[in-house]
Amino acid sequence: MNSSKRPGGDARAPTDGRFLVGRRVLVTGAASGIGRACAVAFADAGARVYVVDLAAEAAEEVAQEIGGTAYAVDLSDPEAVDSLPDDADVVVNNAGLQYVAPIQEFPAERFTLMQRVMVEAPFRILRRTLPHMYRQGWGRVVNISSVHGLRASAYKAAYVTAKHALEGLSKVVALEGAGRGVTSNCVNPGYVRTPLVESQISDQAVAHGIAPADVVEQIMLARSAIKRLIEPEEVARTALWLCTPHSSYITGAAIPVDGGWTAH
Ligand code: NAD
Fold first, then answer.
1. 81 lies in some domain
2. How far is the CA of 34 from the centre of ligand 1 (A)?
3. N or C end of the chain: which has fewer CB within 10 A?
4. pTM value?
5. How many domains is the chain built from?
């Protein structure tokens, strides 16, 4: 039987590596780290990429490099989020930020900002793009969550709360989109070698009262069975794989890319 005739199948052949030709992919936080790696990987697969980020200049550079379009948008601003294109076939909700402090010292406005960027913005982007995906009977939602979408760590109240909420949102999209050709999944990395992690090293050194040099080994990799940071490209390849025909039965899932962190 031809794969295009199978229920839920996709006529695009993944074997040529350019299975996303003709597709539009919106990636948030695409100017740096994992988002940038996703933008590059999806463009390599043939997609036209909407490079969404607060950092206007860096977003423009990525867009130029991959032949995409940059959107300089602050995702904590609901109106700006609602001005983004609504015709994406794939949405990669990736933008995120971290803040490390005990709850009693955690600034309330920082907590709110993080929920806006990491929970409300994905919700607003999806409520605008899902109708397009439903109309054409195909769509993919990839939420870049974290091991902190599945487990908690001390001093990360806003981040752990936001990532757990994103997991919930992803599952609801999976249920609502199942009969309409739309899958929704989370990718759950451990510590990835990106600017977000570099900036945490000094914060965590203060919070835990240890030297910055010891943070990577003693804190970040303590729970990881594989003792190295993950590269952004490894996360991007997982996000891309979730958009191949081979993964069309995978929905509502959380896929750890964590070197065994959540095996504990
Ligand atoms: P990064 O700091 O390298 O990139 C994040 C990008 O998001 C930046 O370009 C930044 O400008 C953008 N951004 C932040 N706030 C924004 C806003 N208000 N509006 C628009 N854009 C905004 O971070 P990263 O490490 O690549 O993280 C990307 C995602 O991966 C995040 O959701 C993060 O939680 C998740 N993650 C990262 C790691 C890690 O170890 N780096 C691990 C697990 C999950």
1. yes
2. 7
3. N
4. 0.93
5. 1
